[in-house]
Write a structure and sequence with these properties.
- There is one protein chain.
- The chain is an alpha/beta fold.
- The chain folds into 2 domains: 3-155 and 243-261, Rossmann fold, CATH 3.40.50.1360; 164-237, Alpha-Beta Plaits (2-Layer Sandwich).
- The protein is 29% helix and 24% strand.
- The protein contains 7 helices and 14 strands.
- The protein has helices at 9-17, 30-42, 57-71, 85-93, 131-138, 173-183, 223-232, and strands at residues 3-6, 50-53, 79-82, 107-112, 116-117, 123-124, 141-149, 164-168, 190-193, 210-215, 236-239, 241-242, 248-253, 256-261.
- The strands form 3 sheets. A 7-stranded mixed sheet has the order 1-14-13-7-4-2-3.
- Helix 2 (30-42) crosses helix 3.
- It binds ribulose-5-phosphate (5RP).
- The site of ribulose-5-phosphate has 18 residues, from helix 3 and helix 5.
Length: 262
């Protein structure tokens, strides 16, 4: 599969958006594309690195690959910092040595998926529920490599019509959900408590919190201002917009892999 290395965010966003994602003849499955992006990202990993290990079906492929390379002796002395309990368990099962931010406050590299990527490499993350730990860990990395299949590319944050998650404390969650919805009334925001499909109860994060999923009908505009307004609400722990955090974006599509360096 061909790889293109691109440098300028705006120009290449346009190029990526015009890639033929709507082609009627789909050759590779979405999961195969995720795996291709993940394996490409692992090419950035070197022995001795402290690595942020992301969460989700795309990041899972990268962690499997890191485990495989360690077992083959092609990588050594890796320290992984997992972004969720599920990733912690996966990494442990693969024999990847693990640590945490208390012991390794600066990471060499993190690899993680995303739910949306806008033309400026701003992300929506957290549909898998791990946004707080992801943001803490990925905010401490010298390099943050984001891996997606081309379906994750959007014109603007919220543009997929799917959720922008916000982690909140459980105390009076309806009050906080209402405040969040009111904040984005002009964008036609709908705020919904995330429910666990396993037990029909509120979804509880690794940190014991709830998640409110925000759905926007329109572009919310200034992301930094929106993020700051969300964080000013008492009851909010963190939001799923990762603004100006990604340093490298790897997109796998039907025509090949694009490595987009911000
Ligand atoms: O933010 C995340 C988890 O909290 C994931 O990175 C995001 O949901 C993408 O998941 P997937 O790789 O399964 O599509």
């Amino acid at each position: 599969m061909a790889t293109a290395y691109l440098g300028s965010k705006k120009a290449n966003a346009a190029a990526l958006m015009s890639s033929p994602s709507s082609s009627p003849q789909r050759i590779l499955s979405q999961d195969e594309l995720k795996k291709i992006a993940a394996y490409k990202a692992v090419e950035f990993v070197e022995s001795g690195m402290v690595l942020g290990l992301g969460t989700g079906s795309t990041a899972k492929h990268a962690i499997d690959r890191i485990g495989e390379l360690l077992q083959q002796g092609k990588l050594a002395n890796i320290v992984g910092i997992p972004t969720s309990t599920i990733t912690h368990e996966q990494a442990l099962s693969l024999g990847i040595p693990l640590s945490d931010l208390d012991n390794h406050p600066v990471l060499d590299l993190a690899i993680d998926g995303a739910d949306e990527v806008d033309p400026d490499m701003n992300l929506v993350k957290g549909r898998g529920g791990s946004l707080l730990r992801e943001k803490m860990i990925e905010g401490c990395c010298k390099k943050f490599v984001v891996i997606v299949d081309e379906s994750k590319l959007v014109d603007y944050v919220g543009g997929s019509g799917l959720a922008m998650p916000v982690e909140i404390v459980p105390f009076c969650w309806k009050f906080t959900a209402h405040k969040l919805q009111s904040l984005f009334a002009e964008a036609g925001c709908d705020a919904k408590l995330r429910i666990s499909p396993q037990n029909g109860k509120p979804y509880v994060t690794d940190n014991g919190n709830f998640i409110i999923d925000l759905y926007f009908k329109k572009d919310i505009g200034d992301l930094k201002a929106a993020g700051d307004a969300i964080l000013r609400l008492a009851g909010v722990v963190e939001h799923g917009m990762f603004i100006d955090m990604a340093t490298t974006l790897i997109v796998a599509g039907e025509l090949g892999v694009t490595v987009w360096i911000g």
